[in-house]
Every structure is written in structure tokens, then in C-alpha cells.
């Protein structure tokens, strides 16, 4: 646990667990309000995995002395997230036959913003501690 990258990754894990716990605690209430919880659970898992991979790609490139490597890492992470999310949305629309659950999609968008915010804050802290950053 002495690895600083592991310590920077802990908030992403905590967010994943907290979101799942909140979904389980408020399950009946959310279902009554029209949320399709299976979609939100799967979206949370996908976003957690994407944030994990993106975080490690970007931290690896942040430790490079070449600024272009850092920019490639950021773009690689962004493109990976974009393609996977678009593919997941198309799969969801295909599976549901066009009957999408707007509440679940908006909840997933909010979850995406939370993951992205935590990822950016952690990467900014890593970049500040870099000697040439």
C-alpha cells in the first residue's frame, strides 16, 4: 500500500462501492421512480473499468519526460472511453428494441461525471508532484 498510484486509485474504488451501495439501499424507491437499475449497475461497472484503465494509461504517460507521451495517454484514454460508451449505448438500444430508460441514462451520465472528476483531480495531483511538471 506504499505505492502512491494505488493510493490515488482508492477514491475510484470507493466511488464504485458507494454508488452500488446507494443503488441497493434505495432500490425500491428508484424502481418506483422508473429507474431501470440493472442498466445503472452495468453502467457503473463499465464506467469503473473504463476509469481504471484510463487512470493507469494516463498515470503511466504522466511519468514520462516527454509531454507528447502524456497527451497521447490522455487522448488514448478519451478515445477508449468514447468508443466503449458509444458501443454500450448502441447495444443497449438494440437489446431493448429502442425502448430506452431516460432516467437510467441520465443517472449514468451523472456517474460518468463523478468518475471523470475524481480521475482528473487525482491526475492533477500526480502532475503537480512531478519534478518537471
Describe the structure.
The protein has 133 residues and is mostly helical. It has five helices and no strands. The two termini are 25 Å apart. The chain has helices at residues 4-25, 27-32, 37-62, 67-96, 102-129. The chain is 84% helix and 0% strand. Helix 3 (37-62) runs antiparallel to helix 4 (67-96). It has one domain (4-128). The longest helix is centred in the middle third of the chain and has 30 residues, at 67-96.
**Spatial gap, N to C terminus:** 25 Å
Major beta-sheet overview: none
The computed structural class is mainly alpha
The number of domains is: 1
Number of helices: 5
Estimate percent helicity: over 70%
Pattern of helices and strands:
HHHHH
* Residue fraction in strands: under 5%
Identify the overall geometry: flat
Rg, nearest Å: 17 Å
Counted beta strands: 0
Low-confidence stretches: none
Oligomeric state of this protein: single chain
Mean pLDDT: 87
Short key terms for the protein model shown above:
single chain, 133 residues, mainly alpha, 84% helix
Spell out the blueprint of helices and strands.
Layout: H1 4-25, H2 27-32, H3 37-62, H4 67-96, H5 102-129
Helix pairs in contact: 1-3, 1-5, 3-4, 3-5
Summarize the structure.
With 133 residues, this protein is an all-alpha fold. 84% of the residues lie in helices and 0% in strands.
Amino acid at each position: 500500500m506504499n505505492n502512491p498510484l494505488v493510493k490515488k486509485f482508492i477514491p475510484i474504488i470507493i466511488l464504485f462501492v458507494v454508488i452500488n451501495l446507494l443503488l441497493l439501499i434505495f432500490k425500491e424507491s428508484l424502481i418506483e421512480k422508473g429507474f431501470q437499475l440493472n442498466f445503472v449497475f452495468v453502467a457503473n461497472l463499465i464506467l469503473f473499468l473504463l476509469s481504471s484503465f484510463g487512470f493507469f494509461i494516463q498515470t503511466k504517460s504522466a511519468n514520462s519526460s516527454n509531454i507528447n507521451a502524456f497527451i497521447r495517454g490522455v487522448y488514448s484514454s478519451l478515445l477508449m472511453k468514447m468508443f466503449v460508451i458509444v458501443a454500450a449505448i448502441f447495444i443497449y438500444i438494440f437489446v431493448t428494441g429502442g425502448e430506452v430508460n431516460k432516467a437510467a441514462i441520465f443517472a449514468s451520465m451523472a456517474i460518468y461525471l463523478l468518475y471523470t472528476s475524481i480521475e482528473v483531480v487525482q491526475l492533477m495531483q500526480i502532475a503537480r508532484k512531478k519534478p518537471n511538471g
